[in-house]
Write a structure and sequence with these properties.
about 450 residues; alpha/beta; 3 domains; 13 helices
Amino acid sequence: MTSGAMSRVACTIHEIMSRLLGILLLVAGANCMYASNSAVVDLRPNNFDNLVLNSDHIWVVEFYAPWCGHCQQLTPEYDKAATALKGVVKVGAVNADEHKSLGSKYGVRGFPTIKIFGLDKKPEDYNGPRSAAGIVDAALNAANQKVRKVLGGKTSGGESKSKDSKDVIELTDENFDKTVLNSEDMWLVEFYAPWCGHCKNLAPEWATAATELKGKIKLGALDATVNTLKASKYEIKGYPTIKFFAPGKKDADSMQDYDGGRTSGDIVNWALEKLAENIPAPEVVQITSEKKLRAACEDKPICVVSVLPHILDCQSDCRNGYLKTLSTLGEKYKKKMWGWVWAEAGAQPHIEDALEIGGFGYPALAAVNIKKMKYSLLKGSFSYDGINEFLRDLSYGRGGTAPLKGAQLPVIIETTPWDGKDAEPPQEEEIDLSDVNLDDKDEL
């Protein structure tokens, strides 16, 4: 073969390979939600460990599915966050629908899920706003924790004897019973020694966790080298030691050992799990006024609204059966902090109209996001299994939503609460024949 022919063959092969490469890139990119020039790194099983786990960088990682509507809505904000964090914190994304092994490895159950791989590469769930600003703040907080960890728990102002956070409550022998035991709050209490290196490492993590849990769970710190009465009472033999005090009424022995990790994420997740275990199931509230509806639903991420048949169509045993199903599901999903309400068919027509419930008959159910003025209607059976499947899909980001008709809270009609009894059907008026003239046949 001449040199010219060989050259032409080489060019042809090169062209074919280039086209094949282009096709492969198109196929690979078909399920990728971020452009090739995006600051978001495409993570896969064959590069995840090397890029994320084996690096010194803080990583923010999104686990998504291309078909997920919430993921599609997040894409521009996540892209913006990645651009802002470029050179400071790494930002990546995993198509967990395609790479199920990675999603399974990190316990991904819904989309999108964002995890931050910070200190010790232990992933922490990001539960903040789905906005560029929220993601950036969380990423910078993780970077700050890493820097402080390297510095051995020192702050810019030097080494702190106790806790460098206004949200950590300083406890003593004198105030412990009044502050902790006599409160209805849930507490995590750290017993520490100022000279203890592990306590110094824990200090910034404890402070961050206290801020994140503010309003839900209280975190305290007690210098066990000074406050020896409480340290002796709770048999503190090493530092730091963390004790858990459940919410509600307590006595001197109301204490359990904390057995979670030492990062702020570990502490927060452990505490929230304990809080969820100890909170009662939400009450299924009858909508009898706007005040009742707002109290049950206004600050909740989702409000489950049921419309039950009229009492004449479904007497007390029937209605209580439906309410028991709702209460059981409320217990199952209590960690979600949802609101649960119900109304009798026809009692709140504006709610039924806003949720377009009328066409499906009774009982009916919808999940409503009051802040976003959106809802999703149950179209399956009003049963434990039917409602459970509906709510489970909703919590995973699946299922369609629609804007609330009128884009505002419906007018609520004030009604009398159900007394728990059966209802008597209206009696027909009896005709007294004694006053009728039987001779007047036309009138009969």
